[in-house]
Amino acid sequence: MSPYIAWQSSNMELLTILLAVTSLCVLLYRYCVATYTYWKRKGVTHIKPSPLFGNVKDIILRRRCPALVFQQLYNKSQDYCFFFVGSPNFLVLLNKVCLLPLPTIRSLILYFLVFLGERYVGIYQARTPVLLLRDPELIKHILVKDFSCFPSKGIKTDFKGDPLSCHLFNLEGDQWRYIRTKLTPAFTSSKLKIVYQHIDHYSEKLIEHLEDQLKTNDVLDVYSELVNFTMDATGSCAFGIEVDAMTDENSEISKMGHRVIEANGDTFMEILNSISPRLTRLLKVSMFSEDVTRFFKNIIVEIIRYRDENQVMKKDVMQLLMLARNKTCVADDPVHPATADKDEDFDEVMLAAQAAMFLRAGSEKASTTMSFCLNELAHQPELQSQLRAEVEHAKEEHGGKLTYEIVLGLKLMDRVVAETLRKYPLESNIYRVCRKPYTIPDSSVELEEGTKVLIPVYALHHDPQNYPDPERFDPDRFSEDNKNSRDHFTYLPFGEGPRVCIGFRYGVLQVKVGLAALLLNYEFSTCALSTLRPEFNSRTWVTSPANGMWLKVTKR
Ligand code: HEM
């Protein structure tokens, strides 16, 4: 071959490779931005996305927590509104139509919009179009009035590959309805009164445990201490098992419980799904690893076997789960589970999924709320003293013993917990997926089946129009008068409607009993590691402190 032909053919090869790489890059780019015209086509105001990341780059790169990312988008949508009405063409048009001077029109519109803002705005979660809601009235429609169109959260569950993901929080359709109905009786007031004894018992153990801890150091990460307390209490209340998280650092169930907490809230799965659900299926990515699944399944099998063999009937979550296996049995039916007609869809693995979810929610939610609350109280010693005085006074008045009714009757405690959940809503964002074509009320925008909507709870709770000076911790926001003066749907720490948190009464009870015991025994103050603005964990959907919650704890 002549040198010229050789040069030409190597150039051709280079050109082919270059062409292939360029086409691949173009294809990849087009794939990344393919969905980004969605909201424009629908005529919905949207926020400009960046390729592949959409509007949630900081969540994908784990630089900021979801609560703050969606808050930024929520606030930005108001800026967009200003930008739109500030545009000269729009003002001139109005000037011609209304025959009013331009400055008057501008100030009238701005005044109007400060109070209204956009009702909703289109964003992109990676490649997935999501409608971010801002208007409490519209939120009420989605969560309650038009629930039949929005019954699901759009979380992918895989019974075969990742059975522990099939818990009530994630399920949809008939499976969700079936399990919800079966488990609801576990949270009635009469059941909670029984549960109170367990929580009270473990709050005493918590005090003993802290006594030991404080012998070596008076500065503690209250967050990690409290999660062990709530795990012990939940294990006992829900399943009648001793977790021993507080006293035994090698407790296997406590280790597994912690792994469920970490895996469940992780942002990775949801983001991967938003980029490509097909890729998630292809990679067979699962939320929970096999050993965790096996562990929970074995525990459930063991508890069921023990209760069946020894004819043990307890009024706890485990018993309801066992009864849920029976097609005909209702919650408090005295018929023994072993004798009833079993539902083959509701096997031990399905029970294990519910059990792991209860252990996680019961441990994580109350402990995180208590930690944020104690941090606020450490920064406001006067409020801490008032709250302690309320608990002490109630205890003295009732013969030196706190009871279920007394704890729930503490008024300041109630407001302090409500304000904690306002400032730190743990589920900072609530998702719903449209399951029937839906026209947004008072608009011509139709949402197709499969469209995701997002309720940015953290942003609503931090919107100065709903809560003036939102970073200030002020329990008076929850006085009866103040509560009544606000739209109910600006406060959603437990969600609303048929999918409202099933365990909220239990969670709040744990928080109140734990706080009462702690305040009676200790004073909490700031230390070198404390901060009034704790950094949030950017790896999880749940609003939680990134670096623990360090406080100085002094025996009273
Ligand atoms: C301070 C404590 C708690 C907070 C702030 C909280 C928050 C929430 C929120 C906001 C939702 C609604 C999510 C949505 O609508 O998409 C929810 C649902 C749920 N929560 Fe809680 N939760 C707490 C405690 C608990 C506890 C203690 C349990 C169980 C023992 C629990 C179990 C559940 C379950 C199973 C759901 C799903 C309900 C359904 O979809 O039907 N939560 N929680």
From TrEMBL:
Alphabetical UniProt keywords: Endoplasmic reticulum, Heme, Iron, Membrane, Metal-binding, Microsome, Monooxygenase, Oxidoreductase
As for membrane topology, the entry says: Peripheral membrane protein
Per UniProt, where does heme bind?
501
The listed locations are:
Endoplasmic reticulum membrane; Microsome membrane
Cofactors, names only: heme
- Would you tell me the Gene Ontology cellular component terms? endoplasmic reticulum membrane
Listed GO MF terms? heme binding; iron ion binding; monooxygenase activity; oxidoreductase activity, acting on paired donors, with incorporation or reduction of molecular oxygen
Q: Which SUPFAM superfamilies match?
A: Cytochrome P450 (SSF48264)
**Alphabetized InterPro entries for the sequence:** Cyt_P450 (IPR001128), Cyt_P450_CS (IPR017972), Cyt_P450_E_grp-II (IPR002402), Cyt_P450_sf (IPR036396), Insect_CytP450_Detox (IPR050476)
> Record's superkingdom?
Eukaryota
- Protein family according to the UniProt entry: Belongs to the cytochrome P450 family.
This one is known as Cytochrome P450
